[in-house]
Amino acid sequence: MELLVLTKVGGFLGPFATIFGWIFNLLYILLDKIYELFSDEKNGIVAVTVILFTIVTKLLMTPLTVKQQKFSKMSNIMNPELTAIQEKYKNKKNDEKAMRTMQMEQQAVYDKYGTSPTAGCLPMLIMFPLMFALYRIIYAIPAYVPDIYELYNAIAEGIKNQDYFAYMSEMATTLAVQTKNFSEMSEGVLTNAHLVDIMTKFGTNEWTALAEKFPSVADIINTNAEQINAIHSIWGFNLLNTPQYYGFSLALLIPVLAIVTQLFQSKLSMAKSKNNNKQGEENVMVQSMNSMMYIMPFMSGFMCWMFPICVGIYWIASTVVTIIYQFFINRHIDKLDMDEMIKQNVEKMNKKREKMGIASGNQMAELAKMQTKSIDSYAAAESKKSTTSSYANASGKNYSAEKTTSSANSDKKSISGYANMMKKD
Q1: Number of Cβ atoms within 10 Å of the Cβ of 233
Q2: Are 20 and 137 in contact (CB under 8 A)?
Q3: Residue 287 pLDDT class (50, 70, 90 cuts)
Q4: 68: which residues sit within 8 A by CB, 6+ positions away?
Q5: Which residues contact 190 (CB under 8 A, 6 or more apart)?
Q6: Any residues with CB less than 8 A from the CB of 119 and at least 6 apart, and which?
Q7: Do residues 333 and 73 touch, judged by C-beta distance below 8 A?
Q8: Is 177 helix (H, G, I), strand (E, B) or coil?
Q9: CB-based contacts of 216-223 (< 8 A; 24+ apart in sequence)
Q10: How far apart, in whole angstroms, are the C-alpha atoms of residue 29 and residue 253?
Q11: Residue-wise burial string across 27-41, b where 16 or more C-beta atoms lie within 10 A, e elsewhere
Q12: DSSP annotation of 24
């Protein structure tokens, strides 16, 4: 598997990686000071830093997580109404007018609850680059921690006085380090940064082979490699090695724990989903997502077997922290008053529309003016059913009252009447 390892992540991930790299380095420095109080050795400091880094980054993303969870809970209330609208028009997919009507009715539901179809996507769109940036830090720790970089750089300085190019180029290929950004490589040159990128992938065997290849600088290589291995070692395992390197040993616990913790997280997520959405078992998309929740943990376990132990520790720590973190987030979300949340959402939406010069009841007024036979007949049937949310009733009526026109008043159904129709499962 080809992995992209750069001295520092560039492109749109660059700013995120820089911020997270600064946090990782700060945690490393703090731990380094603590370690010095008790011992000169720093065994396992990288593993501890990774775990603390996981906790801190999870906490930093709390606002996005809470926002996402709020939308999920709101969706559980809206979905029956949205599903009813889709069912109503399921045989009219080729009718352009009917499709426009369906879209307007769906938008009216979102308006009624003071949200939008994209409200749940925005937190995810923000979180994705953040997560990718986090992984890049774990894959290229020396690029963001100067103290660790200097250990590698000392070795790079030593071998650059040797005939190093052919051997290190071969190591880059063997270790699947992508070198397309090594512009100087075409001229037979590897910079110190390039060499560090390659050596970041070194495990115990690679350090031994490097010292044997360049015996004149073997002392420099062995001294610094020993320190590199020490800070990356925990319970006798080198985090730069893969569990596969140790065979059937305690290192096997890394992929096993990755599978078990992610399966547990998946079970909790599915249990929460079933409690909130009783139609989940009938929803093909939900069933597909549930299948992926079982498949992904085993895929992660396989990757943890193939990747350095450091990556596996990050995944396990991330999953465990997420489980604990999600428990408290869910308790907070469950205590929220949904009627109050809807009220706040509607108020925020109205203020936003006022600033943009858009009438808050515009969509509802448009729907009221349509006077189609399908709306009239559907309204007559739906008006007999009970409501889903008490505040949704009130907010729907408020919307209709704001934008009622004389032509709408003369129609068969008032705006508020249609709003009531929209609230039903």
Answers
A1: 21
A2: yes
A3: low
A4: 120, 123, 124, 127
A5: 164, 165, 168, 169, 182, 184, 198
A6: 71
A7: yes
A8: strand
A9: 216/162, 217/155, 217/158, 217/159, 217/161, 217/162, 220/154, 220/155, 220/158, 221/155, 221/158, 221/159
A10: 29
A11: bbeebeeebeeeeee
A12: H
DSSP 254-276: HHHHHHHHHHHHHHHHHHHHHHH
Q: What are phi and psi of 275, to 5 degrees?
A: -65, -35
Could you give the CA distance from residue 352 to residue 140 in angstroms, rounded to a whole number? 43
Residue 44 zone, left/alpha/beta (φ > 0; ψ -120 to 50; rest): left
Rg (CA), the chain: 29
Please say if the pLDDT value at position 33 is more than 70: yes
Check: CB of residue 351 under 8 Å from CB of residue 297. Answer: no
User: Taken in order 180, 186, 187, 188, is the CA torsion positive or negative?
Assistant: positive
Give the distance from CA 164 to its chain's centroid: 40
Tens digits of residue pLDDT in 348-386: 877 777 777 665 444 444 444 443 344 444 444 544 444
Nearest-CA neighbor of 414 among 403, 82, 425?
403
Model pLDDT for residues 89-108, shown as the tens digit of each residue: 888 878 888 888 888 888 88
Q: Are 401 and 361 in contact (CB under 8 A)?
A: yes
- How distant is the alpha carbon of residue 223 from its chain centre? 39
Amino acid of residue 92: K
pLDDT tens digits along 394-416: 444 444 444 444 444 444 444 34
Using DSSP, state whether 366 is helix, strand or coil.
helix
Q: Are 120 and 68 in contact (CB under 8 A)?
A: yes
Output the six-digit token pair for 315: 């995944």
Rounded CA gap, 200 and 40, in Å? 24
Supply 275's token pair.
């409690």
d(CA 16, CA 245): 33
More confident residue, 56 or 266: 56
Contact 314, 50 (CB under 8 A): yes
Q: Which residues pair with 233 in a beta bridge?
A: 238
pLDDT tens digits along 147-160: 999 999 999 999 98
CA distance 420 to 20: 48
Return the ∠ at Cα 71 (arms to 69 and 72), rounded to 5°: 60
Counting every residue written for the chain, the total comes to 425
SS (H, E, C) 223-240: HHHHHHHHHCEECCEECC
Task: Please tell me whether residue 352 adopts helix, strand or coil conformation.
Answer: helix
CA 114 to chain centre: 25
